[in-house]
Design a protein that fits this description.
The radius of gyration is 25 Å and the shape is globular. The strands form 11 sheets. Strands 1-7-6-5-4 form a 5-stranded antiparallel β-sheet, with no helix packed on it. The chain has a 5-stranded mixed β-sheet with strand order 2-35-36-37-38, with no helix packed on it. It is built from 10 helices and 41 strands. By secondary structure, the protein is an alpha+beta fold.
Amino acid sequence: MNKPARFILSITLAAAAVAILVAQAPPRSAPAFTAAQAQAGQGVYDQNCGGCHGANFQGSGDAPALSGGTFLLQWRNRMVSELFGHILQTMPPNAPGSLSEAAALNVTAYILQRNGAQPGPQALTAAAAMQVGSIATGQAPPANAATAAGGGRAGRGPAPVARGAGASTTRGVSVEGEVKNYVPVTAEMLKNPPASDWLIFGRNYQRHSYSPLNQITKDNVKNLQLKWTWAINDSGANQTTPIVHNGVIYIASPSNIVQALDGKTGDLIWETRVGPDQAPGYGGIRAMAIAEDKIFLPASNAHIVALDARNGKILWDTPQSDKPRANTSGAIVIGDKVLTGLTNCDRFDGEGCYISAYDIHTGKQLWRFYTIPREGQPGSETWNNLPMNNRAGAETWITGSYDPDLNLTYWGVAQSKPWNFLSRHTTPYDKTLYANSTVALNPDTGKLSWYFQHIPGESFDLDEVFERILVDIGDQKVSFNAGKTGLLWKLDRRTGKYLGGKQMVMQNVWESFDFATGTPKYRTDLLEMQVGKPVNVCPSTEGGHNWQAMSYNQPSGLLIAPLSQSCMNFTAREVDFSGSGGGIGADRTFAPMPGSNGNMGKLAAYDVKTMNEVWKYEQRGPFLTAALSTAGGWVLVGDVNRYVHILDVATGKVLWETRLGTSAQGFPVTYSVDGKQYIAVMAGLGGGSPRQAPTALAPEIKFPQNGQALYVFALPQ
């Protein structure tokens, strides 16, 4: 029997076994918990779990679903005491072991109740000796079903998070003010940004994360001083990019709060609460956009919202989808359109994810590009004949770049869901387009010009969704990108032709990689892996490279990349293919990367012509900011251990360091006001695997679970 046929047969048999397992009605054991425990557990869940696993237990990002068929497929035959122990020892991911035994028991009771288990007079204990499947059905009982439909907090999302004395949840302008002498942002300014401004995610359309400002140099950077700080809402993940125009900083805080600040003093000019509220969790708003007299916020609930840049008034608000989606990607304005992506497309609902464009004046949706081809369209056949309702993933959770000369916008597409080919009922040879691809689109129409799939059939959450950096090398127009495998890819951005690759961190997922053609080949044991049996994979889902963007330093011709070094033991799981199942379908535990000497953080510089590594700087804690470089000859990066480092672009030598109140996280920027250069760095929390890996592998690194803020530095007067 040939290999594809053997895989199809094994998957068919596995699916049949799952159907029989789900159809069985195991005998019910006596109740294992009290109603009071479940009620108390709801509060624990809302505070610690809902931001990742979702208000309705549906899962999100790296977090699996905690109810329904997929949950039971993993936990049905395991003991309740094992579920409790897993929660007690590993949750929440950013502070494992921080829950008390009572809190972990209570949230276990609540999860069981949401899966159909009935309370009784006997309290749940750590020694509970029954299988999850003996008391849980995977279906919420009528009382909880009514609650989930809107009768209680569970159906409306996590409880509102307190935001300090006098905080209001009223939507609209909450602090009134006016930006004086506002200058409209023209299309020409977006194409050629003023040196003093930071108008675009990555500063320019090419996503260079480079500034031509040179007042702060590698010689005087040692004299930097903190000028001011601005506290940011702590209610959710923070990985944002400030937008700076004409001396005014615009920032998006968790819970969709937009503020305008004076870039010299840090004084608040105006504030608008767009909503909705957020709980601490995975996704943060990575970037806003600006054009003419408008700020464009891609809100966490997948609405694109336009605000008046002068005073914060909401001008229009357009939902991107009628499905329960989210948006962490940010936005980019091209001409009279604002483009943005989508996340939370891991459930089986038949729609999937897409990139979409909106009229900047009216908010009208103008086009969609679906990242999973519709049935009958080219590429649809790469999903092993699965119906549309069982195709998921392919999110676009990082904003694209743009070449004005070619009039093409370039976006990375994330992995297909569930993560592994066994879990999603495909074979290792099914490409699942356009997952793990670069897509080049016409921004006027949304039509596909070309695509390049970096890893066909990717199966370990090693996605290639991140920034596309556009560089001209002589008359060669190139696009660079790097993903979680830690490979630096070089493509011709006119055609998508593969031009070269460079492995930046150790990997063992591929048995071989053809650097002439750009073709990876998985290890044989990974092609023959089985559900429920772990395999070792390097890098881990933390990624060799993740959302922490690279910088292209134009004067030196160097790409400077924040990288991470960790591995994992990866276990594929069966998922529920009925209804709105789906999700990630896998477990993983993190492990050190061989040859890294325990250093998870790596910052390295690569020559764009040769792709050779010029220098590297390694340390224990991983970097959690994008790299920012300037014409002053330095590059800045921040880490999980609260440090901000500035290094010499040419050598990687550390020139200056300081420490923030909590982890440095997000996208640093630099700007100038009245001839003086400033550097703005975020302190942030939340996130997925880039947070979970150091928590597991470097528990000695401690950081506060609050204190998100903007720190602004400059030279002395």
